[in-house]
Amino acid sequence: MLKCRTLWRTLAPLARTSSTVCRQNARRAGLNNGRLPACVPAAHMSTAPAGGGRENQLYVLLVGATCVGGAIYAYRTVKGDSQRYQDRIDEISSRPLKTFTEEPATPTQSEPPAPSPAEPSPPAPDADPADPPSVWIASTAEEPAVEASPQEAAEPAAALIVEEEPPAAEPAEARPGVVAEDEPVIEASPEEAAEPPVVEPEPSPPSEPTPAELTEPVAESEPPAAESAAAEPAEPQLEAVTESGDASPASHKVSSHTPYLLIGGGTASFAAARSIRARDPGARVLIVTDELVPPYMRPPLSKELWFSDDPSVTETLRFKQWNGKERSIYFQPPSFYINAEELGSAENGGVAVLTGKKVVHMDVRGNKIKLDDDTEISYDKCLIATGGVPRNLQVIERAGEEVMKRTTLFRKVEDFKSLDKVSRNVKSITIIGGGFLGSELACALGRRSTESDLEVIQMYPEKGNMGKVLPEYLSNWTTEKVKKEGVKIISEALVKSVVSKDDKLEIQLKDGRLVKTDHIVAAVGLEPNVDLAKSAGLEVDSDFGGFRVNAELQARSNIWVAGDAACFYDIRLGRRRVEHHDHAVVSGRLAGENMTGANKPYWHQSMFWSDLGPDVGYEAIGIVDSSLPTVGVFAKATAKDTPKAATEESGTGIRSESETEHTASSPVASSAPSPTGVQHKDEYGKGVIFYLRDKVVVGIILWNVFNRMPIARKIIKDGEEHADLNEVAKLFNIHDD
Q1: 3-class SS at 99?
Q2: How far is CA 345 from CA 71, 145, 206, in A?
C-alpha cells in the first residue's frame, strides 16, 4: 500500500496536466465553430498549463499502467500473506515434537497451577504403568493445543500440562474417621512431573446410609463427575485437611466458592446441611470446622462412652446405649460426605467437610471468609454455628503453665480421650462444677473408681448437685445419689487459688479448706463463640451472649445463626440462648430450611436431658431456674422408670430424636389419685416439677418420667394459669403402675 501511494503522488500532477490540455483544446474548437460542444463536461475539468495531443496519449498510458501495477501488487500481497499464515500454522503444528526432541533440558516452572478436581489422581501402587493416559499441552491463546503421545509425555515438557477433556474422576473409598479420603494432593517437583499420572482403577462411589441421628430426609448423593477443565487459568484453590484416626492430615484442594457455607462442625451445622439437601437435592454444602473429625454428637462424651466395656472405645468411639444397642458418636460415616476437592464439580451436589481450619475473618459485604491460613472462600448463603468454648476459672488461668497442663476443659472428642487416659494413670481427679456436665462426669468417673484406686472429688459453690436448676430438696437428694456412685462431694466451695506443689495440685478454698489432687476438670459453663462478630459487624446480646437473630434465625439478609451461639426471641419466654443438643438439632434444621427460602419462624420449645448413670435421669423444657417458685408432684418409681427403660421403649439413646418429632394434641389425664404437694425425700423416684413465673408455668422437669415431653411442651405453649398443678401432673400419668 505504501508503494501504491508513492506512485500515485508521482503520477497525479501528470494526470491533472493532461486533463487541462484536453479542456483547452475543446474550448478552442468551440470558439472557432461559434458554439461550445455539448459533450464536454467543463465543470469536471481542471486548470493547468497548456499542452499538446501527445500528452493525452501519455496520460492514458500512465493511468493504465497504474491500474495494472496496483492489481499485481494486491495479488502478490494477498498470496504472500496466505503463504506466511500457512507457514505459521505448520510451525505451530510441529512445535510439540520439537519441544520434546530438541529441548530435553529439565524445564522450570515459576508458578505451577493448583490441580483442579478434574485432574488425575497421583499414581496408585496397583495401577498398570504400561498404559499411561494421554497428556495435553496448552500453548498460548493463539496456538491450538496438540495431543502428545504417551512416549512424548514421558519426556520433560517446557509447556504447561493441562487436561482439556479428562475422564470423570470418582472419589476413592473412604476410611473410618476420614472426611475426604483421596490420597494427599502434593505439588510434584519438575522431575516427578515427568512421570505420567495413573488413575485409580476401581474407586468405590460414596453412598448415603440410613440416617441414625436426625430424622430429616435427604436425597442420596450421587458420585460426582469431574467437569472438563479449560486451558485457561483456573480459579484459586484452597487446602483441605482431613484426618483418619491418628494419621497425619492430608492436603486437598477445594473450590474458593460454595453456595452454602456452614461455619462450625457441630450438631447444628449437620442438621442444617441435611435440611438444605432435603429441600435442594442438588445443593453444594461446605462445612468448615476447626476440629479434625466430621460432625458428631456431644452428649455421649459425658454419658454412655464412660460406661463402655470396650477397652478401645477411645479409638472406635462406639458405645452401647442404655437399651443395649450399639452406635457411633458420628452422625454419619465418612462415605456420607463427598471429598471437599470435588464439591465444586459434583453434578448432584453433596456435603463436604473442611476439617482443621478456623474462620478468623468474615467479610459480610464481600460475602467471603478468611481462614487461619489466609485463604479465602466466598459464599452465597452462610450459617454461623460456632457453638461455644468451655469457661475456665481465672484462678486456674493465673496459676501458671504447669497447672493449665493438668487441667481439662471438657468439650470435644480430644478432651474425652485425654481425660480417659488421665483417669487410668492418676490417683485423684477433682471436678469443679455442680451443673449438668460436672455431675455427669462425676458419676461416670465415680463408677470407674469402684474398679480402680481412683479418687473422684466434686466441688461446687452450691449446696447440692445442680443447685441452680433443681429445687433444694431435690438437689440434696441427687447429691446423695452421686455420693453412692463413689464420688466425694465438697459443697459450698469457692476456689481461692490453685498451685502446683510436690507433683500435686493444691486447691485452696476461701473458707480455708485445702484439697490435693492430681488433675482438675473445670466444668463451669460455656461461653458462646462470637469471635466473628467484630469482623462481620454482627450484634452480640449483652445479657445472654451470642449473636442476636430475628425470629427466622437471621443475623443479616444472607447470614443465619443456630445452636449455642444464637440468641433468639422466644414468643412465650422472651429472648433466650439455649445450650443443649435438642436446640442445636431444631435450630440448625430450621436455619437450613430458611436458607433455602422457607422463611419459617422459630417457635419450638427445645428440651434437654441429663442422666446420672442408667438409673436416674430427667428431661427438662423451658426456663428451669431454682430461684423461681416450684411445685413438685412425685410418685413411687417402678422398674420401667429409668433411662435404660426409656431408651428401650423409644429405640434411641438420644432421646430428643423422638421427642422433637412428636406433638401433643389432647393428652388424657390419669384417673389414679395423686397426693398433694412434695412427697417424702425417699420417694423422689419419679415426678414432675413445675417452674412458675407470675403463676404461669414457664419450665417443667420430668424426673424419671420419659417420652412425655410433647405434653410439657404444650403446657408451656398454652401459657395458662393453673389453679391445681396436681391435676396438670395427671396428664403425665406418673401415678400409673
Answers
A1: helix
A2: 57, 23, 15
Q: What is the pLDDT of residues 186-206, one digit of tens each?
A: 333 434 433 444 334 343 333
User: Could you say which residues of the chain have pLDDT below 70?
Assistant: 1-8, 10-53, 91-252, 322-323, 613-614, 639-683, 736-737
Give the DSSP per-residue string, 302-330.
GTGGGG---TTHHHH-EEE-TTS-EEESB
Check if the beta carbon of residue 258 is closer than 8 Å to that of residue 343. Answer: yes
The neighbouring-strand residues paired with 430 are 457, 520
Q: What burial letters (b/e) apply to 574-610, b meaning 16+ CB within 10 Å?
A: eebbbbbbbbbbbbbbbbbbbbbeeeeebebbbbbbb
Place of cell 464420688: 487
H/E element holding 698? strand 696-703
Task: Tell me how far apart the alpha carbons of residues 549 and 9 are, in angstroms, rounded to a whole number.
Answer: 82
The grid coordinates of residue 260 equal 452454602
User: What number of other Cβ atoms are within 10 A of residue 140's Cβ?
Assistant: 7
The C-alpha cell 475422564 sits at: 167
Cα gap 519→644, rounded to integer Å: 31
Interstrand relation of 455-459 and 487-490 (parallel, antiparallel or unpaired): parallel
According to the model, what pLDDT value does residue 646 have? 62
- Count CA atoms within 13 Å of residue 112 on its CB side: 15
- Edge-to-edge, what's the strand order for the sheet holding 617-622? 607-611, 617-622, 696-703, 686-693, 630-635
The C-alpha atoms of residue 452 and residue 447 are separated, in whole angstroms, by 10
Do the beta carbons of residue 252 and residue 277 sit within 8 Å? Answer: no
Q: Which of 391, 715, 383 is nearest to 521 (CA)?
A: 391
Euclidean distance between the first and the last CA atom of the chain, given in angstroms as a whole number: 111
CA dist., res. 383 & res. 190, Å (int): 42
* Nearest to 465, CA basis, from 388, 523, 512: 523
Neighbours of 202 (CB within 10 A): 8
Measured between alpha carbons, how far is 262 from 250 in angstroms, rounded to an integer? 21
DSSP state of 730: G
* Vertex 135: Cα angle to 130 and 136 (nearest 5): 165
* Three-state secondary-structure class, residue 574: strand
Q: What is the pLDDT of residues 598-629, one digit of tens each?
A: 999 998 888 988 877 667 788 999 999 999 99
Q: How many other C-beta atoms are found inside a 10 Å radius of the C-beta of residue 723?
A: 8
Alpha carbons 589 and 612: distance in angstroms, whole number: 29
pLDDT at 164: 39
**Distance from C-alpha of 414 to C-alpha of 292, rounded to nearest angstrom:** 10
> In this structure, what C-alpha cell is assigned to residue 455?
479418687
Question: pLDDT digit string (tens) for 281-316?
Answer: 999 999 999 999 999 999 999 988 998 888 899 999
Distance CA 479, CA 471 (A): 12
